[in-house]
Give the backbone structure.
Amino acid sequence: MITKETFTQLAENGLWKQNPGVVQLLGLCPLLAISNNVVNALSLGLATIFVMAMSSLAVSSARNFVPHEIRIPVFILIIAALVTIIDLVFNAFAHPLYLVLGIFIPLITTNCIVLARADAYASKNHPLHSAIDGLLMGLGLTLVLVMLGAIREIAGQGTLLSGIDLALGPAAKSWIITVLPDYKGFLLAILPPGAFIGLGLLIAGRNWLDMRAKRRAHLQARQAAAQASTA
């Protein structure tokens, strides 16, 4: 069983303190390359969540049976098997989207954050804890992907959910949201430089919020100490 305190700590690490996208800065290749719209970003993020959760569970379950000297090749083999499953699922059920995502689905195998969590956490902890850690780390990366995709899509095209018909069929075209009517577009936003600019803004925003929270906590601690000294 996992305690509330452990789950809270894992959630804080995955979503904020050790977020792969804006803190650890791991897996930047797919993060920057495929985040030109929300649909692409969310699709790759969901694939990464599945691979991270299941690989962490498998690595943790097998950790006592794998010699230390060959642990990395075994971990990569497990990750590659799971990525192959995801690759086949996308190819079978969302082929147009599969063609758009291209090489970035197989590249999940070599994504630094997947292998890093398998080696640094899953190989040393209980399977349930490892699976939740992988799930939350993947979710943290997906949130960054989606936010970056939304920023770039709105700035570049003035829409949200563009390309959703590639995943759900032609009937889903009506789901596309026009955020900026009669918008001419801003090409830089959907090109690679726009990805770097957008990610930089997200990192700056996260650091600003973190510093603001620390200043507030420090001020509250000083006020509490002052009240205690006068009591």
